[in-house]
Design a protein that fits this description.
2 domains; six-stranded mixed beta sheet; 13 helices; 39% helix; signal; Amino acid/amide ABC transporter substrate-binding protein (HAAT family); Leu-bd; Peripla_BP_I
Amino acid sequence: MSRLVALGAVAALALSACASNTDSSSSSSGSKELIISTDLPLQGSSATQSGDTNKLIQLYLDQIGGKVGDYTVKLKTYDNSTAAKGAWDDAACAKNATDHVADAAEVAVMGTFNSGCAKIEVPTLNQDSTGPLLMVSHAATNPGLTKEWETGEPAKYYPTGNRNFARVVTTDDYQGNAAAAYAKGDLQVTKCYVLNDNQTYGLGVAKAFATAAAKEGIEVVGEAAWDAKQPNYTALFQTVKASGADCVYLGGIYDNNGGQLIKDKVAVLGDNAGVKLMAPDGFTGYADLLALPESEGMYLSFAGLTTDQLTAAGGPAAKLIDAFTQKYGQAPSGSYPLYGVAATQVILAAIEKSDGTRKGVNDAIFSGEGVTIPAADSVTGKEIKIDPKTGDTDARDVTIELVTGGKETFAKAQSVEG
């Protein structure tokens, strides 16, 4: 534990000093150089938020001198999206997984952003003969990655029987509970129509919301998938209108033609002050969404606390975001970049506890007491504790946001009970 506190002290000092960039290749001779990577969608609607995540992580590494314990750490970035798809891609994720394993200097992966991509990559990383190779996500929230959800989950992602996936945000079952409670208690909706994008994340979060909504006394009057390739969704929303729903929940990611979906919802059902429109964190952090007049009055849930909430208390989060703003002229897009740094802090703590091997880094998370980042050092302002049995965090914060004036604004924060 003393070594983790030392890591936090170094990071805090570096953040306070707002040091200039440091080239980690100039570290003292004899230290072992390790690579940590990010695996994010760098094309399409997610590009800005993912790019800012990479920039913020690099800034953090620069500020701690690219060093942790006896190791020099460098960052390598991977793109799991394609220009043609404009979002994460199955084949790109599969290739990245093999490329991670092939780079012998790489000891951990920060990512992925999308749960479906994580489910493709984790089994490959798990079977690495020198590992397993650790992945710590800032955004992959599907419950099945760490606990029983769909058939065979989570065991099928860990063929060796050893866990190698962790995350610093809560899961979609808790996000669904929080969104449903807000819909009932604050918005006083009575009938909800639940849509999903037919992908892993979307199916999971839609299921979680529908289950929780029914328990809250909200009638789920219909469930359907939207096809991201369709030019419009007028017929779909005519069906929703006929159901008498006073709420529509979009379970999925904005990348899957979410803009057209929002436009057609308003065109058929009216603005969001009437029939409420809700969506999960797969719709947060998108400048294109915020630019849509039809998104005004839309409610979003986020599996964590927003950057504004995290920086309001000062400390490491505020200092890091201020340094980013000074360097790039504006704050990072969305709230996931800061959680990307939180995931990186977990990886660095694991490296410091390890012998510098893939197996050693992974074992630091999934054996003994695991890894804990003290609240005073964490960029979330809260203690980050990873359960060594599951890889989940014990923080279950969920934020509800309201889109107004072209911005995501704070509506309510909830800490969901287990």
